[in-house]
Specification:
Helix content is 36%, strand content 16%. It contains 12 helices and 13 strands. The strands form 4 sheets. The chain has a 5-stranded parallel β-sheet, covered by helices on one side. It has a 3-stranded mixed β-sheet with strand order 7-10-12. Strands 8-9-13 form a 3-stranded mixed β-sheet. Strand 1, helix 1 and strand 2 form a beta-alpha-beta unit. Helix 1 crosses helix 6, helix 2 crosses helix 3 and helix 8 runs antiparallel to helix 9.
Length: 310
């Protein structure tokens, strides 16, 4: 079986750096597309790189002529730049585009959140251009889900917010390590015909809010402090932030879909399993503290999240 030739756009972020490393370790030939401001001094030996402005269509086309799969791993600020890739890909030999998503499908309410709408517009543009895509949906990253408090779980402070029926509804979380392994397993060797226009969910841990609360109690030898928000209150918070153009509307939306029991359908039923991978359990992540540190937010961000616990 031969390797797919892969180009990665966005290789330095908290998530993307791990995925990039796993793709390189898979043995597949990897090319990095990078902006002039990016640091490529620590690229592994054997990885080729091309400085390119994605708004320069001819330059992008030239960089992609020997590529089978383009994987975009840009963060939120880079999502609109993917339109440059979409414009160029039809004029190349690229067979598959993997846009940056790394979350879950959004319903109509979620698409009102600007970042979700921007991701949707990239996918729609790719479809209109006739580009085959693969979408990868891990749900929530365990590292941010369990440590930032954005979705209502704060391991270090032993507290949890139950939104709607989240105590009894399933949340889907994956560690960064698992997502990286999945990207390598999916894209390094799988024939592209088996990947075209597919949406793959990833699932390392599935748990209810009550499961999380039980694990918190085991870790701290005391029941967690609990708060409760009705779905009506969550909807009000989403709308208020959208109306005012304030951040964290998406965090409230994440609480909403958990509390409404919608996460399984937004991940989908086509779950990719990574052969031979030993998945982490909820107890390992919370009780045994085997959670990789997440990037630290600004004081303003942390203060805004703190207000979401009351």
């Amino acid at each position: 079986m031969t390797y797919n030739r892969i180009a990665v756009y966005g290789h330095r972020g908290w998530v993307s750096s791990a995925i990039f490393a796993a793709l390189v370790q898979s043995g597949a030939p990897v090319k990095v597309l990078y902006r002039p401001s990016s640091d490529i001094s620590d690229l592994p030996e054997g990885v080729t790189s091309v400085e390119v402005d994605v708004e320069d269509q001819q330059a992008v086309e030239a960089a992609l002529q020997d590529v089978d799969i383009v994987i975009s791993l840009v963060g939120q600020e880079g999502v609109p730049r993917q339109h440059g890739l979409v414009k160029a890909i039809p004029e190349t030999n690229v067979k598959l585009f993997v846009p940056s998503d790394l979350a879950f499908r959004c319903d109509a309410q979620g698409l009102r959140v600007p970042i979700n709408q921007l991701k949707f517009e990239v996918e729609e543009a790719a479809k209109k251009a006739g580009i085959a895509m693969t979408i990868v949906l891990p749900g929530f990253f365990a590292e941010s889900f369990l440590s930032t408090g954005m979705v209502g779980v704060d391991v270090s402070e032993n507290r949890i917010v139950f939104s709607g029926d989240s105590g009894h509804q399933v949340v889907n979380i994956c560690t960064r390590e698992y997502v990286a392994a999945a990207y390598a397993a999916i894209f390094a060797k799988t024939p592209i015909l088996e990947l075209e226009n597919k949406v793959f969910g990833l699932s390392e841990v599935q748990a209810t809010g009550e499961d999380v609360a039980t694990a918190l109690e085991k870790r701290h030898s005391a029941p967690p402090t609990t708060f409760r928000h009705s779905l009506e209150e969550v909807d009000r918070q989403i709308q208020d932030r959208l109306d005012k153009g304030q951040p964290l509307a998406n965090a409230w939306y994440c609480r909403r879909i958990w509390g409404a029991g919608k996460i399984p359908e937004l991940i989908g039923s086509d779950i990719w399993e990574v052969d031979g991978y030993s998945k982490k359990s909820l107890e390992e992540l919370i009780v045994d503290d085997k959670l990789v540190a997440y990037r630290e937010g600004s004081p303003a961000f942390q203060a805004a999240v703190e207000k979401m616990f009351y």
